[in-house]
Design brief:
Strand content: 15-25%
Largest sheet: 7 strands, mixed
CATH class of the domain at 139-216: Mainly Alpha
Oligomer: single chain
CATH architecture of the domain at 139-216: Orthogonal Bundle
Length: 398
């Protein structure tokens, strides 16, 4: 699982990254603070499957807290993007190449409208954040279009001369962008290109295909950051109406970071994504800290239900990518060392029992006989599609 953080300079990408990972990174309110990409581990949050069996899990990776399982995902915070990135402006070329392997993109937008298109400070509310969404789409589309244009003439001639299957050839050529045969087939059919000879495709056909493949392989969720600034809420409501097809989540990365740091130092008890926190050591908090926590409670948690950072991560994985969380179970839910449900895998929806078996271990897949849904005790055939939070035991010949 690979999540890319994108957005223009100073929009709050690095603060979002730090809030999600608690890694020390440089954050500042000036363009291109991030030059080299920061890579770290964040977590998606799911209800613990072990709790359904009145047990406490022992995660091999990630962690467990108060009935919640936090499963690791890789996050990459890349250099800020400005208009013309595909032409090399700003850190554009580096930005785009860093995103090759991203499964989904989180676009961190300064919803307060206090940054111009270059990421420079302006009066709050004076800039329209909808422009950021439009220019990011454009830059990504042009990036894909450039990749296609550079090789298309030679590629199409080779496919024609060798009489290759067009779908397989395109999927193989652009597999580095996570393009698959199923995706290519769907897009060619939708664009009316399945029955059109590849040498007769015109420039518009190629552009349309590049854009459609970009939309499918680089899906975007919007983190409407700095929602706690006065102009944020109004802009957020406008964006929801203007971009109904996007998932747009109000958030405050700074507030999430403050809560996690306070929890880390034992000042409060906080579970990421929750609508409240509990002060543990009030006598250790100074007036400024108390005021800050009260601001977060009143202006974010009470108003939006959370700081939004955990919601963005969860929706990116489970709603935008449509992944599910699956638990392999050993005897009595434990592995050979007695650890309860130590593993949790994030896999595409409709993953079958056999596919899950191979993800757990190739030997289990090779020797698969059947799977058992631990909750229902029912046997599952190898082609049975699994559901989110399924706990599966495998029976195999070895």
């Amino acid at each position: 699982m690979f999540i890319g953080l994108v957005g223009k300079p100073s929009a709050g990408k690095s603060t979002f990254f730090k809030a999600a990972t608690l890694m020390d990174v440089e954050t500042a309110n000036y363009p291109f603070t991030t030059i080299k990409p920061n890579s770290g581990v964040g977590f998606v949050k799911i209800k613990s499957a072990a709790k359904d069996f009145n047990k406490i899990p022992n995660p091999r990776e990630g962690y467990y807290k108060n009935g919640w399982r936090f499963v690791p995902v890789q996050i990459l915070d890349v250099a800020g993007l400005v208009p013309g990135a595909h032409e090399g402006k700003g850190m554009g070329n580096q930005f785009l190449s860093d995103l090759n392997q991203a499964d989904v993109l989180i676009h961190v937008v300064d919803i307060s409208g206090s940054l111009n298109e270059k990421g420079e400070q302006v009066q709050a509310g004076s800039y329209d954040p909808s422009k950021d969404i439009k220019f990011l789409e454009h830059e990504l589309d042009m990036w894909y279009m450039q990749i296609f244009s550079k090789i298309w003439k030679k590629f199409s001639n080779t496919v024609n001369q060798q009489k290759e299957d067009v779908v397989k050839a395109i999927a193989k050529q652009f597999s580095g962008l996570k393009v698959t045969e199923d995706i290519v087939k769907e897009k060619l059919r939708n664009l009316g290109l399945m029955d059109k000879h590849i040498l007769k495709w015109d420039e518009k056909d190629i552009e349309n295909l590049a854009i459609e493949l970009r939309k499918e392989t680089k899906k975007i969720i919007i983190a409407a950051n700095k929602i706690d600034i006065s102009s944020g809420h109004e802009n957020f409501e406008k964006l929801k109406k203007e971009f109904p097809d996007y998932t747009i989540i109000p958030c405050s990365s700074e507030s999430e970071l403050a809560l996690k740091e306070a929890d880390k130092h034992g000042m409060i008890e906080y579970i990421p994504g929750e609508e409240d926190f509990k002060i543990i050591k009030e006598d250790k908090l100074n007036e400024k800290q108390k005021s800050g926590l009260n601001f977060i409670k009143t202006n974010l948690l009470d108003k939006y239900g959370s700081t939004g950072v955990q919601d963005v991560l969860n929706k990116a994985v489970f709603d935008v990518l449509n992944y599910i969380a699956l638990f392999p179970a050993g005897d009595k839910l434990a592995d050979a060392d007695g650890n309860i449900l130590p593993d949790c895998l994030l896999l595409p929806e409709k993953t079958t029992a056999l596919e899950f078996a191979y993800h757990v271990h190739s030997d289990i897949g090779d020797n698969f006989t059947r799977a058992i849904d631990v909750r229902t005790k029912q046997s599952l055939k190898k082609d049975a599609p699994l559901k989110n939070r399924d706990v599966i035991e495998f029976l195999h010949t070895k």
